[in-house]
């Protein structure tokens, strides 16, 4: 096929490149330019996972290559999160010491932490004697946790994780505490009762144990909790 007679091309130039080819060439040039000025090893939010993909710990996004990650760092979402983190650090009274070039002032550099393994754990099935709600009690051991660090917990849907095939019948509870690896426990995709004394977590600094209790809503509460005009259930 003759490409030299395409509209807009010069004689002998091979034709006008397509938009996709132009974008690919632009991304490659930007990637090479960024790699010359940015050291990913010093980026506190850059993380390479066990499957070879790259993650942004600030925005919780996954990228297939370093070029995609670098393009993400220049995007609106990443820059907005950097600004929010800087405002939070400034509000907490933290200075800009240790801030790395390319990051907004006030953002603390977070060094890559060497993981030392998974925390020990124990899971116990429980039932509320009054409401007859089923639940679980988690006990995690963090004997070598970093001083001043309190473990964190959150729930994750099946579609957020990248390890298994997403299944809407399950959800995950995530527990993290440096320098230990982040662990996840697979649960039924039932609604968790977040009322007082139903869902709570507590860290025993003396014994370095992190306790988490959750109770699932009863079938009645799950069925009628979102119906207007009806009581949310027994308290």
Automatic annotation (TrEMBL):
GO annotations of cellular component type: catalytic step 2 spliceosome; U2 snRNP; U2-type prespliceosome
Entry's Gene Ontology BP terms: spliceosomal complex assembly
SMART domains listed in its UniProt record: CactinC_cactus, ZnF_U1
InterPro entries listed in its UniProt record: Matrin/U1-C_Znf_C2H2 (IPR000690), Matrin/U1-like-C_Znf_C2H2 (IPR003604), SF3A2 (IPR052092), SF3A2_dom (IPR031781), Znf_C2H2_sf (IPR036236), Znf_C2H2_type (IPR013087)
An example molecular function term from Gene Ontology annotations: nucleic acid binding
UniProt keyword annotations, A-Z: Metal-binding, mRNA processing, mRNA splicing, Nucleus, Spliceosome, Zinc, Zinc-finger
Domain Matrin-type: 54-84
SUPFAM superfamilies documented for this protein: beta-beta-alpha zinc fingers
Major localization class: nucleus
Record has Protein transport as a keyword: no
TM spans (from-to): none
Pfam families tied to this protein: SF3A2 (PF16835), zf-met (PF12874)
Localization annotation: Nucleus
Region (Disordered): 1-25
Family: Belongs to the SF3A2 family.
Name of this protein: Matrin-type domain-containing protein
Organism: Lophiostoma macrostomum CBS 122681
């Amino acid at each position: 096929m003759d490409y030299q007679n395409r509209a807009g091309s010069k004689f002998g130039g091979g034709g006008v490149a397509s938009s996709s080819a132009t974008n690919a060439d632009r991304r490659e040039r930007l990637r090479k330019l960024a790699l010359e000025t940015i050291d990913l090893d010093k980026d506190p939010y850059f993380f390479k996972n066990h499957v070879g993909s790259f993650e942004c710990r600030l925005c919780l996004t996954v990228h297939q290559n370093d070029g995609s990650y670098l393009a993400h760092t220049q995007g609106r979402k990443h820059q907005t999160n950097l600004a929010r983190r800087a405002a939070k650090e400034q509000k907490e009274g933290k200075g800009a010491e240790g801030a790395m070039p390319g990051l907004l002032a006030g953002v603390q550099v977070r060094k890559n932490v060497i993981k030392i393994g998974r925390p020990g754990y124990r899971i116990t099935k429980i039932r509320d004697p009054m409401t007859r709600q089923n639940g679980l009690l988690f006990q995690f051991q963090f004997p070598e946790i970093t001083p001043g660090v309190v473990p964190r917990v959150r729930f994750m849907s099946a579609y957020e994780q990248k390890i298994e095939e997403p299944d809407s019948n399950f959800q995950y509870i995530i527990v993290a505490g440096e320098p230990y690896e982040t662990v996840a426990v697979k649960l039924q995709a039932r609604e968790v009762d977040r009322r007082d004394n139903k869902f709570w977590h507590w860290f025993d600094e003396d014994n370095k144990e992190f306790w988490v209790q959750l109770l699932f809503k009863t079938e009645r509460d799950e069925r009628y909790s979102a119906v207007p005009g009806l009581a949310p259930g027994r308290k």
